[in-house]
Amino acid sequence: MIDESKPIFVQIAEQIEDDIISGSLSEESQVPSTNEFAAFYRINPATAGKGVNRLVDDGILYKKRGIGMFVAQGAQARLVQVRKDRFRDEFVRPLIAEAAKLGINPDQLSEMISTEGVPA
């Protein structure tokens, strides 16, 4: 399950984000501890902590002293918006730029996308 192309702490943060976006981890629910992540992935707890702390710094998780980490209110909406913005920047804008180079107008591009979305 570990992807060698990116740091493990990033993968842990992304897994938590994915679980929040999908609803597997709801707002105000407790996330697994760094020790649980460390045991599951067979990594150093400090590495797991780095991934969790990244989300704390972003306001996605918060700490209840002596209890653990929890999903913050509004975390799902914030994560969805961040991912939408990233999707636009990484995929949509380059797609539009390439379509313009090829002389594909917006209507043609929309038709191409609609056609690709239809199962065979």
Automatic annotation (TrEMBL):
UniProt GO molecular function: DNA binding; DNA-binding transcription factor activity
Superkingdom per UniProt: Bacteria
Keywords associated with the record: DNA-binding, Transcription, Transcription regulation
One matching Pfam family: GntR
First and last residue of the signal peptide: none
Annotated SUPFAM superfamilies: Winged helix' DNA-binding domain (SSF46785)
All copies of domain HTH gntR-type, residue ranges: 6-74
InterPro entries documented for this protein: Tscrpt_reg_HTH_GntR, WH-like_DNA-bd_sf, WH_DNA-bd_sf
PANTHER family: GNTR-FAMILY TRANSCRIPTIONAL REGULATOR, HTH-TYPE TRANSCRIPTIONAL REPRESSOR YTRA
Protein name: GntR family transcriptional regulator
